[in-house]
Amino acid sequence: MLLILATSLSFAGTVEAWAPEFPQNDYLAGNGWENGWSQDEWYSFEYDGVVYASPLYDSGDDGAFGDGGAHDNWITNAAEDVKQGEFIVTVYVDDDDGWGVVFGAEDDQRYLMLFCGYDSNGSGTDCPSPDLDVPGSGLLLISGNDVEVLDQSDRSVESDSDNEVVISMNDGELSVSVGRIEYSATVGADFVLNGVGFYGYNQGMYEDNGQADNSSAYFHDPVLSWHDDDDDGVVDDLDNCEKASNADQADADGDGIGTACDDVEDTDTGTDSGTGDTAGGNGDGNGPVLTAPGVCSCAVTDRSAGVLLLGLAALASSRRRRP
């Protein structure tokens, strides 16, 4: 992890965790990428200096998510474990069918930001989720065959345009934005923003019969980053003071909260918990500070306590004077 932090490209508020380079003019599967549907391989190619990834075949079906068919036409990469961070990818779309961005993919569960576009040519738009309006979009949680729509609207994106999809995770709050389209959900602080990738339904560069389709969703420049809110070079996942800059990560009392943001830092090195106290306590209310066995250096802050101490001293003096 330290090596990753030392070599990652850092921007204001973020530290790059993973930014893959697609193979040029080759299949994407392998090198960490895994297809959800084996019958549609994803392909990458370079155009005008940009390397894109797209599903190869324009295929749909009458099945459902989780059955291993065209509904599961995603490709994902385990990437890096990021709890507080963001996944950004740009998508050029010139097809009005379903496409999306996948994240949090593990075993048979994944999150899908799904878009079903505008029907620009009157031929009808294929959307893999019957719960979404067309045009429309939604944030889905897919667990096997179960599909939960966490958020949705009748908003989608225009064809023939680049769209930047931003998936952000911070302290258990998930947010997705594409231009003015914004969705959110609470997923828990232990959610890991890895297993990221792309999705295409009835999208592809070729028809099933091999004829060129010339329309698809083309993904490029994916970047997964850790958040670094205080911009101190230590990512929030590891930072003991997320909101206070402390590159040294000093923690004088070892309680997991950095010195820079610990309002009540206890630097006690002794035992001051009552009976059997030893030297080194700090008088924090858990017991007296003992500078030597049986000698107390407690600060007297209450008049009644002072009177009690004086009374004890007088009693000790009178007992010493007895034969």
Would you give an account of this structure?
By secondary structure, this protein is mostly beta strands. It folds into 2 domains: about 230 residues, Sandwich (Jelly Rolls), CATH 2.60.120.560; about 55 residues, no CATH class. The strands form 5 sheets. The chain has a 7-stranded antiparallel β-sheet, with no helix packed on it. The protein has a 7-stranded antiparallel β-sheet with strand order 4-7-16-9-10-11-12, with no helix packed on it. A hairpin with a 2-residue loop joins strand 5 and strand 6. The chain is built from 2 helices and 21 strands.
User: How would you sum up the global shape?
Assistant: elongated
Number of helices: 2
**Cα-based radius of gyration, to the nearest Å:** 30 Å
CATH domain topology of the largest domain: Jelly Rolls
The class by helix and strand makeup works out as mainly beta
- How many separate structural domains? 2
Helix content: under 10%
- The tally of beta strands, per DSSP, is 21
**Overall CATH class of the largest domain:** Mainly Beta
* Overall mean pLDDT: 82
What gap, in angstroms, lies between the N and C termini?
73 Å
- What low-confidence regions span 5 or more consecutive residues with pLDDT below 50? 1-11, 275-280, 287-323
> Major sheet: size, sense and barrel closure?
7 strands, antiparallel
Q: Which architecture of the largest domain per CATH?
A: Sandwich
Reading side by side through the largest sheet, how are the strands ordered?
A: 1-2-19-8-13-14-15
Into which percentage range does the β-strand content fall?
35-45%
The helix/strand order is: HEEEEEEEEEEEEEEEEEEEEEH
